[in-house]
Amino acid sequence: MRSDKELEGVTLLGNQGTVYHDNYNPSVLETFENKHPENEYVVTFDCPEFTTLCPKTGQPDFGHIYISYIPRQRMVESKSLKLYLFSFRNHGDFHEDCVNIIMKDLSALMDPRYIEVRGEFMPRGGISIHPFANYGDAEHSDLAARRREQQFSR
Question: Which of 27, 36, 47, 55 is deepest in the core (most CB within 10 A)?
């Protein structure tokens, strides 16, 4: 079980007074200590109900966001991630921008060894968009390059 000290900074989990921000708000993101930093393992989040707005028309866009990362010292707390992703609800940006913003925000928050964010957006005008963004530190740059290459065969 985690100690109170290890849970410092985790304020949203179990909080009954949760506020749902419907405008982009990275400040809701929280982290906790990785108790296994010596292990290289992958954490994956699957958000099948991501919504944002078209920056030109204001029409809603619906997508499926996948986030995978190899943690270092800090990990993102899942409820804060849910609230963060919800905060895109009234944010007007292109799909490619949203995926890159999510990757950059999470990278800055956690400093992971490796991170990737993939979006699978519902068709608009008969075309689906599936943006992919990733980053790997010096030890994981080959993994980052391989994963980008794999996206071309999807």
Answer: 47
